[in-house]
């Protein structure tokens, strides 16, 4: 029987609304080629217009509305002239990530043909790794407080929280990924020389997990030299696993090394499938170029590929990624990549390459 996937489509604001149709076109083309059905349902919340009408980013029953979907396909949210950024982000995207326990943030970093890397002399093939970021605990906790405000004794404390459950589940996900890749190589980001309680604990859990994955090669770098090595030796990495803060930094630095933020995809994953996972480009709503039809749609289309992979349509996922690569190699590039293609022309070219 042909499989059907229920996908919630949430375009959001700005260029989110412009790149989403390209992501959807690629998904639909893939569904025809690989013989599965898509049931797409569009949602108009998580955007500034909704906020202006309702005074909030989401309806009260958003969780019930979305929890039954197989996946969430998200554009970008934010229109700072209308809604303050902390309100739009905390009021929507961060709610999805937390309440759907999307504890893996996955960002592929791959230098694409046709796209110039800011790292001199690097070619496609030199840069091809995945950053796996812990997405729910660690340094981003709400435990702490402020005392003696406004006095000489003013004191602020914010605690890092690492739980065995939280650390082990992200490590397990990363080790599984490494195990499935030809290189079977995992790098752990640490800082146990400076952060002397939680980071040695992280290292200890890496060692414990390693014993269940004898085929995986493991190395570990302190975060300071690791960032330097992303720039100096991006070819050293395959799977990079990191706590919330370190992963946040690495998952921006990685894609930056591949040229433009416009192509970078990301997945927020609940691996057990208890809740839907969310797939979105790394970039935001880019108000500076919104409405001009020149936004790079590749981040959204590549996110579609990640979503297909997550749904188990691995051939379709690989075909979409190949279509992206072969299209970029032809020089069909939007202005952020140095060309004059439009959102529509690049999106169409990817669909043509996919069907070719
Ligand atoms: P941004 O990613 O929207 O834009 C940064 C720069 O990159 C801009 O110059 C923009 O034109 C360019 N850019 C981004 N995506 C592009 C694309 N697909 N094609 C061509 N150029 C592209 O980040 P910024 O300016 O810091 O934030 C703008 C708004 O987006 C804010 O409201 C922010 O809160 C929100 N935001 C939302 C995110 C999300 O929904 N996940 C992530 C980051 C920011
Ligand atoms: Mg970030």
Automatic annotation (TrEMBL):
Report the InterPro entries cross-referenced here.
ICDH/IPMDH, IsoCit/isopropylmalate_DH_CS, IsoPropMal-DH-like_dom, TTC_DH
EC class, as a word, reads: oxidoreductase
Q: Note the SUPFAM superfamilies from the entry.
A: Isocitrate/Isopropylmalate dehydrogenase-like
Q: Pfam families attached here?
A: Iso_dh
* Coiled coil (residue ranges): none
Domain Isopropylmalate dehydrogenase-like residue range list: 6-350
Gene3D superfamilies associated with the record: Isopropylmalate Dehydrogenase
Cofactor(s) it depends on:
Mg(2+); Mn(2+)
Could you give a GO molecular-function term held by this entry?
NAD binding
Q: Which PROSITE patterns match?
A: IDH_IMDH
Q: Which domain of life is it from?
A: Bacteria
NCBIfam families, per the entry? PRK08194.1, TTC
Q: What is this protein called?
A: D-malate dehydrogenase (decarboxylating)
Q: Say which species the protein is native to.
A: Kocuria soli
